[in-house]
Structures are given as structure tokens and as C-alpha cells.
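input
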Amino acid sequence: MPSFPRRELETFPNPAPERDYTIRIRVPEFTCLCPKTGQPDFAELTLEYVPDDYCVELKALKLYVWSYRDQGAFHEAVTNQILADLVEATRPRFMRLTGKFNVRGGIYTTVVAEHRAPGWMAPVPVHLP
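output
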């Protein structure tokens, strides 16, 4: 195989650091293992962030997400760990990670974790007629 799962997150310089803009990334095939049963857990991850100096490189993100496939983790723990790793790598102005975990035993779980850089304020939305 030419690619292997790995925990290293690569970045590249933000091409427009002078402005706030939002990057949204959808990861529809996240998989980890239930730490109690070892059964697979499936989720859709949605990453939204306002970059500062760096953006996450998408192939590296794909390999990073793949690295969780055989790891046991509670939904809350894995969502917060992924957010922490992405924040450490990119140092964004704002970042939100939403994990929508598929049904298990009749229960759906959604975990939302956020990071805000100190002093960063979200711009006021513009509503056009």
C-alpha cells in the first residue's frame, strides 16, 4: 500500500491570513472501536475553522483520521483528542469539530467541541436582502 495511517498532521501557510474566512471539511467515514466491546463505531466528522497562520493539509488529515480505525475510544474522548491535535498543529483563530456517531443500541451521539484563540471575536454576520 502506498499510504499508511499516521498521527502526524501536516500544515501549509494560510494563503489569506489578513482576513477571517471559514474552512469546512466533511469526513463521512470516520471509524474507531468501542472501548467496551471492541465493535466498530462509525461517525461523520465535520471540521469548521477560521485559520490564522496555518491550514491543515487534507491528505495528512485523511491519514490521521485513518489512524483511529483500530483504536478503542469513547465518542467524547476521541472528538476532543482530534480537536486538540488539530488545534496544536494549526493554531487557528477558531475551530469546531462535530462528531455525529451512528446508532448503537438505539442511541445516536453527537459531540461538539470548540476552541477559540484568546482575544478572537467572531465577525458579525452580514445579512443581504
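quick obs: The CA atoms of residues 10 and 57 lie 6 Å apart.
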